[in-house]
Design goal:
The chain is α+β, with helices and mostly antiparallel strands. The protein folds into 2 domains: 4-245 and 392-403, no CATH class; 248-367, Conserved hypothetical protein from pyrococcus furiosus pfu- 392566-001, domain 2. Helix content is 32%, strand content 24%. It is built from 14 helices and 21 strands. A hairpin with a 2-residue loop joins strand 16 (286-291) and strand 17 (294-300). Helix 4 (63-78) packs parallel to helix 6 (127-140). The protein is globular and about 65 Å long.
């Protein structure tokens, strides 16, 4: 059983929330962050991407960067832009992106349960990225970017959330990208007890997004031996049936010396190919290939999909194993400079642009990995291939911070 706890969140003053809250640090470059934060001293990018306040070219991992982030964070607190609640609470956090809506529970999860595998992961982490998040947490003495968790939906929890979200919210803002972010506070003893009782019946939590933040929190917990609030880490937990996963598309810089005709001949041994299909695949085991200004629908032949292994039947695995490695010579997509990954939020027009510009030679438009596949793989202790999922909408940094 995974245990979650209420905590006294550090939150933005409601009238300033729209100016403070920002996208996560890892979905933009330093240059993009500079532009986004320009003219807005309250932008949380001054905390999450503090290099924007230092000379261009500053080493992103230099002590000066973390020190600047801590200085900017302390300034937001000192001026009252960020304010800490006076008692432990749970929080509800709704995001509305176009027709999609999802409402999660903001809570403090257990670092020990992450280390013990009760909070399940499905991706490998990179030591350099872990180190960066550890240094950021240590510098601020706070977790400012929540980990995106999911759980198998529970009817009692759904009913409770729906009832509580009928009340007036504590914060309600619409970000520049059009996504609406709304928060409610659950600080009464009855509400806290209902949530605790509901999660006593939920055996596992699953990391959807935030593997490096989770790993970093676990390392800080170990180094501090659980002192203060370091035994717990900041999360937003969503029911699995509200999750929205977009595809993570692939673009290749070259055809590995093959003409378009030769490439299609090789692909024909793996796929049934139909010219003129849609840019977005319509079902699992279907892809779309953009080459020479036209889309083609690729459907894996049954011989390649006949497996019960949840990792082996992922489209991203099948593409890597039967196409990217043998046909294009891309044996390790984590390190190859000949492949790039494009989040589905950018749309298929971005794939066409990258290929038509001559910067890339072809593109694969993927069908999204399902949340059921993710949970099945995590349950089996498996690790998904890199860039398998792109979750939207993204959680806004500074909506909630967890002080250690």
């Amino acid at each position: 059983m995974a245990t979650i706890r209420p905590f006294a969140a550090l939150r933005p003053r409601p009238d300033l929330a729209a100016k403070i809250c920002e996208l996560p640090y890892d979905v933009m470059s330093s240059e993009e962050a500079r532009v986004m934060a320009q003219g807005n001293p309250l932008s949380f990018l001054h905390v999450s991407k503090p290099e924007i306040d230092l000379p261009p070219g500053t080493d992103l991992y230099s002590p000066a960067v973390y020190a600047k982030g801590a200085e900017n964070f302390a300034a937001l607190i000192a001026q009252g832009a960020l304010q800490q609640d006076d008692r432990p609470c749970f929080y509800l956090y709704r995001q509305v992106m176009g027709p999609h809506s999802q409402t999660g529970l903001v809570a403090a999860a257990s670092c020990q349960e992450y280390l013990d595998g009760i909070i399940k992961k499905h991706e490998l982490t990179r030591p350099d990225k872990e180190d960066d998040r550890v240094r950021h947490i240590e510098a601020l003495d706070s977790q400012t970017g929540p980990v995106f968790l999911t759980y198998r939906a529970d009817a009692a929890m759904d009913a409770f959330v729906a009832a509580r979200c009928s009340a007036a919210p504590a914060v309600d803002l619409t970000a520049p990208d059009g996504v609406r972010h709304t928060a409610w506070v659950v600080g009464d003893a009855e509400g806290i007890a209902v949530i605790a009782a509901a999660f006593e019946k939920i055996p596992f939590l699953y990391i959807a997004d935030g593997h490096h933040r989770s790993a970093a929190a676990g390392r800080v917990f170990q180094s501090r031996q659980g002192a203060g609030q370091s035994a717990r880490f900041l999360t937003v937990v969503f029911p699995h049936d509200q999750m929205q996963i977009l595809p993570y598309n692939r673009v290749l810089t070259d055809r590995h010396g093959l003409t378009a005709e030769a490439l299609l001949t090789k692909l024909g041994t793996v796929f049934d190919i139909r010219a003129g299909g849609p840019a977005k695949p319509t079902r699992k085991h279907e892809l779309a290939l953009y080459i020479d200004g036209a889309w083609r629908t690729l459907t894996f032949r049954p011989a390649f999909t006949a497996t019960d292994d949840p990792i082996e039947r992922l489209d991203v695995t099948l593409l890597q194993k039967h196409v990217l490695a043998p046909v294009f010579g891309i044996d390790d997509p984590r390190t190859s400079k000949r492949i790039n990954f494009v989040g589905g939020i950018r749309g298929t027009a971005e794939l066409e642009k990258l290929v038509d510009s001559g910067e890339h030679a072809c593109a694969f438009s993927m069908f999204p990995t399902s949340i059921e596949d993710l949970m099945s793989i995590a349950d089996a202790g498996g690790i998904m291939p890199p860039k398998s999922t792109w979750f939207e909408p993204k959680l806004r940094d500074a909506m909630f911070c967890h002080q250690l």
